[in-house]
Amino acid sequence: MRGYFAVGVDGISKPMNLGNLMRIANAFDASFFFSVSPQIKLSEAANADTARTQGALPFYPYANAEEFRLPIGCRLVGVEITEDAVELPRFRHPLRAAYVFGAERHSLSPAMLARCEFVVKIPMKFSINVGMAGAIVLYDRLLSSGSFGERPVMPGGTPGAVPPPHRWGAPIVRDRR
After folding, report:
1. Rounded to an integer, what distance in angstroms lies between the CA atom of residue 58 and that of residue 79?
2. C-alpha closest to that of 96 among 112, 122, 118
3. Under DSSP, is residue 88 helix (H, G, I), strand (E, B) or coil?
4. Comparing C-alpha atoms, which of 14, 9, 67, 10 is closest to residue 40?
5. Using an 8 Å Cβ cutoff, are 65 and 115 in contact?
6. SS3 track for 141-160
7. Which among 49, 50, 118, 176 could bridge 19 via Cys, Cβ 3.0 to 4.6 Å?
8. 3-class DSSP assignment, residue 98
9. Helix or strand or coil: residue 54?
10. CA 106, 111, 116 angle in degrees (round to 5)?
11. In the chain, where does DSSP find H-type helix?
12. What percent of the chain has a predicted confidence (pLDDT) above 70?
């Protein structure tokens, strides 16, 4: 799949949730992980992060939303239950994205929410664990990438052909006469 994505948290306070989300980001091959206004230290999440993500992904800590920075062209996607959030199954993921998840007892901070270019929500009855939300969002990104072809029409049917891997070719030169 082309592009990249990152995963981050805003104001997280539970070490097990942070470690779980870091492990999920690593499992889905995130490019980097970030935290904004954390209430805990990264080292406190080590027990839940059995994949040792701290050694596998770059980690960028920010004291607050005003200091937070992303690479040029990377689009910030907040995952939050708000009135105007787009339901995840209806959302087209940006090619270059950073997904930010709020703290367990609270939502994304108003300052972080204001920084988000997009806000998505998982269509459910109530809020779920931040690690589970991260897994759902990243799985949706993976499915929507088109890397797996079409699903079969019938249960147990033969899946559609997997698209060939992207190949870079020579530049296309158009005659502009």
Report:
1. 21
2. 118
3. helix
4. 14
5. yes
6. HHHHCCCCCCCCCCCCCCCC
7. 49
8. strand
9. helix
10. 95
11. 15-27, 110-115, 130-144
12. 84
Quote the pTM value: 0.84
Beta-bridged to residue 101, according to DSSP, are 9, 79
pLDDT digits (tens, 9 = 90+) for 115-127: 999 999 999 888 8
The string of pLDDT tens digits covering residues 39-98 is 666 666 566 666 666 777 888 989 999 999 999 999 999 999 888 999 999 999 999 999
- Half-sphere exposure in the Cβ direction for 174 (13 Å, CA): 1
For residue 41, the one-letter residue type is K
Two structure tokens written together for 28: 């889905």
Residue 36, token pair as written in the block: 């904004």
Alpha-carbon gap, residue 20 to 101, rounded angstroms: 13
Q: Count H helices, E strands: the chain?
A: 3, 7
Who wins on pLDDT, 44 or 102? 102
Total residue count of the chain as it appears in this document: 177
* Cβ neighbours of residue 143 closer than 8 Å, sequence gap 6 or more: none
